[in-house]
Design a protein that fits this description.
Strand order of the largest sheet: 3-6-9-12-14-15-16
Helix content: under 10%
Structural class: mainly beta
Strand content: 25-35%
CATH class of the largest domain: Mainly Beta
CATH architecture of the largest domain: 3 Solenoid
Number of helices: 0
Radius of gyration: 18 Å
CATH superfamily of the largest domain: Hexapeptide repeat proteins
CATH topology of the largest domain: UDP N-Acetylglucosamine Acyltransferase, domain 1
Length: 178
């Protein structure tokens, strides 16, 4: 093992700085950002987050404390699998809670909400609320982060923004506006 001294002022190690907005990175906290990670505008990266090669976060994504992305489906210390890194896409406005794990190769839809401690093992639809291990779809959430309760006609209203959403017959949520 190689000895090294950590620079106390550099707790974040950007490899492609042009791809991220450092103003949203909390100072003096540990995090890992590997090469070829793409972070959009206004991505908030909390303390102890690990973002490995292959992760793409679109604008306005929230990455909660100690959450982690994987990039290889079957890692082994003695076998190099750099040619097997899988892409994980986190779409605009999604939030991932503290201590969640996102297994590589999945897509997290726009404004989806991943609860604390959740393990995501498959694609997540837009506006979905996912909790547990493995992650289960337990409801829908607005762009403002409030639970959506749909009426008999498949319409829900966000309690804060008053924006309306529709649950379609194919099980997707679309925003209608006010």
């Amino acid at each position: 093992m190689q000895n090294w001294k950590r620079d106390q002022d550099l707790a974040f190690f950007p490899h492609n700085e042009r791809l991220c907005d450092r103003r949203k990175l909390q100072p003096r906290t540990e995090r890992v950002v590997s090469p070829d990670v793409v972070l959009g505008r206004n991505v908030k990266v909390q303390n102890n987050v690990s973002i490995y090669t292959g992760v793409i976060c679109e604008d306005d994504v929230f990455l909660g404390p100690s959450m982690v992305f994987t990039n290889v489906i079957n890692p082994r210390s003695h076998i190099l699998r750099r040619d097997q890194y899988q892409t994980t896409l986190v779409k605009h406005g999604a939030s991932i809670g503290a201590n969640a794990t996102i297994v590589c190769g999945n897509e997290i839809g726009e404004f989806a909400f991943i609860g604390a401690g959740t393990v995501v093992t498959k694609d997540v639809p837009a506006y979905a609320l996912i909790v547990g291990n493995p992650g289960r779809h337990v409801g829908w959430i607005s762009e403002y982060g409030h639970r959506l309760h749909f009426d008999d006609e498949g319409i829900a209203t966000c309690q804060e923004s008053l924006e309306k959403y529709q649950l379609t017959i194919d099980g997707k949520v679309v925003k209608l506006g006010k």
